[in-house]
Design goal:
MIX23_fungal, 194 residues, mainly alpha, 2 domains
Length: 194
């Protein structure tokens, strides 16, 4: 089992978070390396030849796909502890950091003066809705912190969905207990801190 390259936390800085394309690419690459290819990762843990080849196994057609596909519990635990949970933790760290950046004041916002100017012009505008009912429409520019907050919120929702799907496959193939992925991740965090 190889350690995933996406578990390395990128250099976290506000510039990293505000570069939404770079943030999305990091999350997408990390997810594709571990979660999107979870079946392949789990199949790599399965060692059907550990008992040796049984010639009688070819005389009967195997129709039960789940028969014999349970992965060794030590291999499963190693995969979860060394690959899956660190990847999830890294993505959580990045999203938490970027959420903190999104809620902090942004003195370097390049559009701040432009938004203030637009807001001042909007306050001075006289609108006669009888002549043009759509003239009252004004769509202020969104601050980059607001845009980042929306991106982080959406990516957290995506994480929840992907982790639930991944955890479902892991518990099915590893014959794990029926704990949720949140409980399993928190348990791993506690073991790691000791």
């Amino acid at each position: 089992m190889s350690r995933a390259t996406s578990t390395a936390t990128p250099g976290l800085s506000p510039q990293f978070c505000f570069n939404e394309r770079l943030l999305r690419d990091f999350l997408r690459l990390s997810r594709s390396t571990i979660d999107d290819s979870i079946n392949q990762n789990l199949n790599a843990l399965f060692t059907p030849a550990r008992e040796g080849f049984d010639p009688s196994s070819t005389s009967v057609r195997q129709t039960d796909s789940s028969q014999g596909s349970t992965i060794d519990s030590t291999a499963c635990q190693g995969f979860k502890d060394n690959v899956l949970f660190p990847s999830w933790q890294t993505r959580s760290d990045v999203l938490n950091y970027c959420a903190a950046v999104a809620t902090s004041p942004d003195p370097e916002d390049p559009d701040l003066i432009l938004r203030q100017t637009e807001s001042a012009k909007d306050r001075e505008r006289v609108v006669d809705e009888r002549l043009d009912p759509y003239s009252a429409r004004f769509f202020p520019r969104e601050a980059r912190t607001e845009s980042l907050a929306n991106l982080v919120r959406n990516q957290r929702n995506v994480e929840d969905i992907i982790r639930a799907r991944t955890w479902g496959l892991v518990t099915e193939r590893c014959s794990d207990s029926l704990t949720s992925w949140e409980e399993a991740l928190n348990s791993w965090r506690e073991r790691k801190q000791r």
